[in-house]
Predict the structure.
Amino acid sequence: MSYFSDIYSGIKTLLTGMRVTGGHFVRIRSENITQLYPDNRDTLQMFERFRGEVVMPHDENNEHRCTGCQSCEIACPNGSIEIIWDRQVDPATGKKKKMIDKHIYHLSMCTMCGLCINACPTDAIVWAQNFENAVYDRSALTKVLNQPGSKLKAGIEE
Amino acid sequence: MMNIPLSITTTIHDWLFSIMPEGAATITEWVLIAAAYLALFAVAGLYLVLLERKVAAWFQFRLGPNRVGPWGIFQTIADALKLVSKEIYSNRKVDKFLFNLAPYFVIIASLMAMAVFPFSKQFQGFDINIGVFFLFAVSSIGVIGLLVGGWASNNKYSLIGAMRSGLQTISYELSVGLSILTMVLLSGSLQLSEIIEVQRTGGWLIFQGHIPAIIAFMIFMIAGTAETNRAPFDLVEAESELGAGFHTEYSGMQFAYFFLAEFINMFIIASIAVVLFFGGWLSPFGITEGITWFPEVLWFIIKVFMIILLMMWFRWTFPRLRVDQLLTLEWKYLLPINMVNLVLMAIVIWLNITL
């Protein structure tokens, strides 16, 4: 008797499969996920979790959140991040304090593993969504993340 | 002898016979018909490839070719131009004669099968009284081309592919034949134009024959897909196992012949299905029956494309069968069901309970 039940289940499963693909076929306009990339360059939105490159956001007062703790530098498995820092007198308290001079990021070495962003205690660095990273000169891939003249936002260290 | 005259062809026919002697005019007509069919072959082949790629993309959430021309409609023409310009290359140890012969076997078999289809009432190349039998005979010549090509390539994968195609065609030819026979039993004729005339009065054969006809249609579609070596029966050129199967060693236009012949075979299987089950060029419910200027060939083409779409749907849904599954399906399921179905159809006709 399994002969006939095999035929029945065979046809049933085949029709189930055809219903799935047929659904895709008729709903192609709404379900299509292909981006026509060079054509829609102006309107293209990358996904929230896309890992383009590491950036350090600055607010309108040119203040960042990086305390210079070097957690990211230590976390980075291949040395893509170098932090140049020194001790300066903090004008608010009058004490000497560690401050970053340059947060150097080598995009050419970065594997987009995201360990630096996980390690950062103050969320100073985040992922950007740009992906057009090709340049003509390799030195352009060595980026200084903190903008010139920027300083630490107040209240981050508490 | 030649049953071609559309109203245009009648004019050409009369004009040719008026300007040259009868023999020369006949030969000229033959050449013109051959050219027409070759053009049809090329255009249908190219656009079926494009359709396949588009449909495949839509089944998989993609867009498909869309760069060459609007909606990519010139993509396959560009591909064909590239293939024409490529060198026809063969390995040192191939059997030169058979290697070069094989593509022509495949393509000539497809072309000969095209000749007998009634595209519309007037547009039929060759209306013989054993049309179905001829189709069935000719469509199995193609497999010789595959076997010869695989053998002559002097390549293990090609040979495995060719042997698989032999095995597959021998098995599934039986099912195709028996399901066609079921419908011939109902229509009572082997002549394709006659089969269509039967359907003009009594409705399409798939409705006339109700249950056995629907079973025969299902078996025909399965076996026909296997005949054309398309997925899920593409063991012959299983990309993941054999490279490209029998046409691994072919390049340029010889490869294109195999490639186009596959799509033309699909067209042929769909055409047989349309003639035998869906009334050929007859309009559904006779809605364009009285309109004399309406091109009936349009109905034929629409129906054929519906069947082709169904075959593409199969291809992009089902996974490939293993060889033992292939043979189990044919010899344990399709063939016994088909034989029972043939008897069932005979009983239906005997008791006169056709619709």
